[in-house]
């Protein structure tokens, strides 16, 4: 495992190679204000507490998850391996030994990770060749295998999966195959297939999310542009389908939220926009197109805007995490989603990669990010103690400089 101090040479090599073959137009970007203005505009301050490079072979991190207590995390790497971490806000990340490789067969990669329950002892790992594996992290061995490849009419490729709130049901979404698109369900405890939904989508499934508290509520998104909401207690797919939402775009990522009235809200990140919908009737609450988001993070070129994820905060608030695709994606900022507007929240200075995955803990306000350079970064909020320490150092430097004797 390579710690922060050993990253510099690797990152410099990445930086030099990244400029080759780039479209010159994409480099026409920058902040719309000065650095000192950014410091005032983004009021909630973070520091880069620690970072780990999971590989020196230019591997991507494709998946990232944490347990419910934010004490363990797992990163799925493009070479098919999993890296486990202990997470302690005060001490940073501690890499754990993981002696299992999740990719049986060539050309298969990790397509998702989920901790099964609050004990953090069991991890679900989805691979693109059609399997979801359940691992016991204490014994470092496989406990169960859920096979989605048994039906000849379905694709061999899993694109997304999730488990429900009581850790009983697993749902896996499939790639389109011969005009068929499947959502397949498994009973995790009994290790058996329950059935599937076959008519709700017409293209690749891109996102599956169970409700965080209601084990029977599920939403799915697809490149066909539709978001479907289901009550999986119902016996048939037709009865289970509660709401269909047409985003008129290609769905990339879905998440569940609550509004001030404790009503369920679904957020949707497409490949161009960010939207919020009411779960009950599918009505659109707000829509933010990429130029609006780019302006909100104080950047000039919407073409470089990278909409990463949306996370829940305390009191049913939420924030949108946004970066850039410029060079190595050094710009990483967050926006508070407030009253149908986007308000600058945090500027994560020191980011070294295009971020693709993130996990947030509302209790500690810590953020984990990972992406295309294979780095897992832990961001922690700057406390008053940190600020006082920094101020003391600045005063000491200033005082030292005033006593310096000139050589002439």
Rg, alpha carbons: 22 Å
Total helix count?
Answer: 5
User: Any guess at the CATH architecture?
Assistant: 7 Propeller
Task: Report the major sheet.
Answer: 4 strands, antiparallel
Shape: globular
CATH overall fold name: Methylamine Dehydrogenase, Chain H
The overall strand count is 28
Compute the number of structural domains: 1
Amount of beta strand = 35-45%
Strand order of the largest sheet: 1-28-27-26
Q: Name the CATH superfamily assignment.
A: YVTN repeat-like/Quinoprotein amine dehydrogenase
The CA-CA distance between the termini, in Å, is 51 Å
Mean pLDDT: 87
Structural class: mainly beta
* Helix content class: 10-25%
Low-confidence segments, ≥5 residues, pLDDT <50? 1-26, 387-408
Give the class-level CATH name.
Mainly Beta
List keywords for this structure.
12% helix, Methylamine Dehydrogenase, Chain H, disordered C terminus, 4-stranded antiparallel sheet, single chain, 408 residues, mainly beta, 5 helices
């Amino acid at each position: 495992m390579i710690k922060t101090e050993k990253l510099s040479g690797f990152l410099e090599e990445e930086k030099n190679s990244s400029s080759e073959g780039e479209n010159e137009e994409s480099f026409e970007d920058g902040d719309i204000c000065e650095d000192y203005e950014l410091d005032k505009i983004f009021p909630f301050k973070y520091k880069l507490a620690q970072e780990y490079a999971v590989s020196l072979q230019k591997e991507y991190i494709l998946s990232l998850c944490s347990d419910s207590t934010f004490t363990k995390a797992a990163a799925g790497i493009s070479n098919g391996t999993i890296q486990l971490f202990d997470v302690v806000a005060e001490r940073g990340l501690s890499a754990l030994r993981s002696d299992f490789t999740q990719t049986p067969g060539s050309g298969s990669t990790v397509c998702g990770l989920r901790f099964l329950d609050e004990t953090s002892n069991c991890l679900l790992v989805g691979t693109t060749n059609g399997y979801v594996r359940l691992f016991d992290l204490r014994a470092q061995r496989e406990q169960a295998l859920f096979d989605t490849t048994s039906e000849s009419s379905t694709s061999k490729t899993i694109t997304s999966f999730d488990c429900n709130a009581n850790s009983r049901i697993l749902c896996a979404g499939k790639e389109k195959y011969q005009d068929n698109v499947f959502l397949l369900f498994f009973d995790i405890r009994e290790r058996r297939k329950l059935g599937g939904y076959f008519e709700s989508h017409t293209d690749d499934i891109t996102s599956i999310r169970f409700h965080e508290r209601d084990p029977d509520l599920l939403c799915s998104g697809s490149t066909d542009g539709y978001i479907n909401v289901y009550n999986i207690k119902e016996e048939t797919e037709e009865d289970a389908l509660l709401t269909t939402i047409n985003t008129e775009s290609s769905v990339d990522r879905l998440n569940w939220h609550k509004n001030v009235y404790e009503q369920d809200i679904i957020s949707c990140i497409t490949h161009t926009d960010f939207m919020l919908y009411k779960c009950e009737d599918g009505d659109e609450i707000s829509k933010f197109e990429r130029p609006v988001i780019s302006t909100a993070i104080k950047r000039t070129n919407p073409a470089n805007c990278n909409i990463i994820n949306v996370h829940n905060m305390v009191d049913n608030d939420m924030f949108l995490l946004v970066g850039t695709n410029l060079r190595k994606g050094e710009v990483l900022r967050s926006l508070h989603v407030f009253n149908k507007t986007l308000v600058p929240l945090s500027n994560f200075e020191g980011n070294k990669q295009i971020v693709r995955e993130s996990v947030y803990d509302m209790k500690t306000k810590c953020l984990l990010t990972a992406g295309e350079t294979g780095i897992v970064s832990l961001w922690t909020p700057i406390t008053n103690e940190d600020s006082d320490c920094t101020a003391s150092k600045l005063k000491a430097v200033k005082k030292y400089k005033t006593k310096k004797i000139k050589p002439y």
